[in-house]
Design brief:
Layout: H1 4-29, H2 33-50, H3 60-82, H4 89-94, H5 100-105, H6 109-121, H7 125-135, H8 140-147, H9 151-169
C-alpha cells in the first residue's frame, strides 16, 4: 500500500497546482461541454496512472502538460475518426474569409474567446498542442520537451500559428 502513496501525493499536488490548466487544455481540445467533462476526467485519470512511472526527469508542470496533451490528442484522433473536420494550417489559410463586420460588431470578450477557441480547435493536434501550451505561458524549450519537437521547430510553429490565427480571427487571409 505504501507504493501507492507517492503516486496519490504526486497526483494530488499536480491536480491542485495545475487543475485549472488541465481544464483549459480540455477546453482547447473539446468544445462540446459533455465531451469536455469526459475529456477532463480522462486526463485526470491518466495523470494519476502516469505517476506510477514518473521519474522526475522533467518538471511536474511539464509532465502534467505532456500527459494532458497526449490524452487530449488521442481524444481528438478518436473524434476525428468519427468526423473528419480537422484542418492543416494550409487548409485553414485557404478557408473563405468571414465577414469582418460581424467580428467588429462583437465586442463581448466571451464571444471573442469562443471564436479563438473554435479556430484553435480546427488545427491538427500537434499545432493545437503547441499553441495551447504557448497560451499557458510555456516557453519553446518546455513545449519542445512535451511534444518531442526541437525548440526551433516549436518557435517556428508558434509564430506561424499566431499569424494564421490572427489573420483568420480578424477576417483577413
Amino acid at each position: 500500500m505504501t507504493g501507492q502513496w507517492p503516486q496519490d501525493e504526486l497526483y494530488a499536488d499536480a491536480a491542485s497546482e495545475h487543475g485549472a490548466a488541465i481544464a483549459r487544455v480540455a477546453r482547447g481540445y473539446e468544445m462540446d461541454p459533455e465531451k469536455r467533462r469526459d475529456l477532463n476526467q480522462e486526463i485526470h485519470f491518466q495523470l494519476w496512472r502516469s505517476f506510477a512511472s514518473f521519474d522526475a526527469s522533467c518538471s511536474l508542470r511539464t509532465w502534467v502538460y505532456r500527459v494532458a496533451h497526449h490524452v487530449a490528442a488521442s481524444h481528438v484522433l478518436r473524434e476525428r475518426r468519427k468526423l473528419s473536420t480537422l484542418l492543416s494550417l494550409e487548409e485553414l489559410e485557404k478557408l473563405p474569409d468571414t465577414d469582418p463586420t460581424d467580428i467588429e460588431a462583437d465586442t463581448d470578450r466571451r464571444r471573442n474567446l469562443d471564436r479563438l477557441e473554435q479556430l484553435i480547435q480546427q488545427l491538427k493536434p500537434l499545432d493545437r498542442q503547441v499553441i495551447i501550451s504557448y497560451l499557458e505561458d510555456m516557453d519553446a524549450a518546455s513545449i519542445a520537451e512535451t511534444t518531442g519537437l526541437s525548440a526551433a521547430s516549436v518557435a517556428m510553429r508558434i509564430h506561424r500559428v499566431k499569424n494564421i490565427l490572427a489573420r483568420r480571427f480578424h477576417g483577413r487571409r
